Amino acid sequence: MSRTAVMCGIGGWVPPTLVTNADLAARLDTSDEWITTRTGIRQRYVVPPGMSTSDLAVEAGRAALKSADLDSADAVIVATTTPDRTCPATAPTVASRLGLAGVAAFDVAAVCTGFLYALATGAGLVSTGQADRVLVIGADAFSTILDPGDRSTVSVFGDGAGAVVLRPGEATEPGALAGFCLGSDGSLADLITVRAGGSEQRSAGAASPGDEFFSMQGREVFEHAVSKMAVAARTAAERAGWRLDEVDRFVAHQANVRILRAVADQLDLDHSRLVVDLDRVGNTAAASIPLALDHANADGTLRPGDRVVAAAFGGGATWGATTFVWPRLRSI
Ligand code: UT7
Prior knowledge:
Layout: E1 4-13, E2 17-20, H1 21-25, H2 32-39, E3 43-46, H3 53-67, E4 75-79, H4 91-97, E5 104-108, H5 114-127, E6 134-140, H6 151-154, E7 160-169, E8 180-184, E9 192-194, H7 199-204, E10 214-216, H8 218-240, E11 249-252, H9 257-266, H10 278-281, H11 288-299, E12 307-314, E13 318-325
Parallel strand pairs: 4-5, 4-6, 11-12
Antiparallel strand pairs: 1-7, 2-3, 6-7, 8-13, 9-10, 12-13
The protein binds oxa(dethia)-CoA.
The site of oxa(dethia)-CoA has 21 residues, from helix 2, helix 6, helix 8 and strand 12.
């Protein structure tokens, strides 16, 4: 039997500052009614001053290790678009703060698809025998890169982190990662971007006002998110040998409930199979899928033995999907 990566721990964490739709409506030209009906989001959490992505990642990572009954791992991967600093990567800081100094630690940047890319990378380390225990974290503090006056992004994004632990096992076990369907199209890079701060802008010189903020062409992103996640999810299910009507839970990147429903419609999946926590936490970017898994595991929406398809779409553009049978895991 070949060596396969198996999920054996789960954790999630959101920062303490709650921002409701009413809070946003008090300072921006928006309303609870608009945000709720157009996105499904009712509230989100943001970092207080002084808290950054590594703080979120450490809490989620600690919870995932505890869930796995472990106090160490031999690799730490952090998927993030909001690293503590442009240089160095955030993962070594997270590993060190978890008492894991000395292990392999690196970041993966694929925006809202980042967790699936990191999970595929971690699964590769385990299946090739490079590592025995891998902590894979998705963590983002998008509130630190948003234009506070941009109602279309401030109303959507929240901060948070989610994590899983991988161990070696067999392909037939619950929690085994069956395979990944990952893709990208760099010609769509301008749809989701922060123009300033990178080598392109620094080399060219002065930036235009506002270029330091995150920007998203929402309507176009919406269409790509639906079509790319639907195709990736269908491909991943086919590779696992599952018919779509055999899928118990669909865990898609929590961008907008209208996107989740549109993908489900394309896949002929009943909406009751959607895992949804964006109403409570908003779009937490790389944290979105592991946080949704942790919340659904904790509240019983996800049960051991459930057949799960997970799919994401994000800046790059990037997209991906994977399948697994949900294992028995303890949420902390
Ligand atoms: O995480 C990575 C992937 N991201 C996504 O998948 C996000 C995909 N996009 C979306 O979820 C939606 O496009 C948004 C939620 C971002 C926007 O919703 P929409 O229904 O697509 O609105 P729109 O961008 O087409 O804008 C329609 C109108 C605009 O006003 P005008 O130009 O028609 O006067 C916006 O300015 O809605 C306005 N608008 C708002 N109005 C009140 C945008 N955001 C808000 C808001 N409150 N928060």
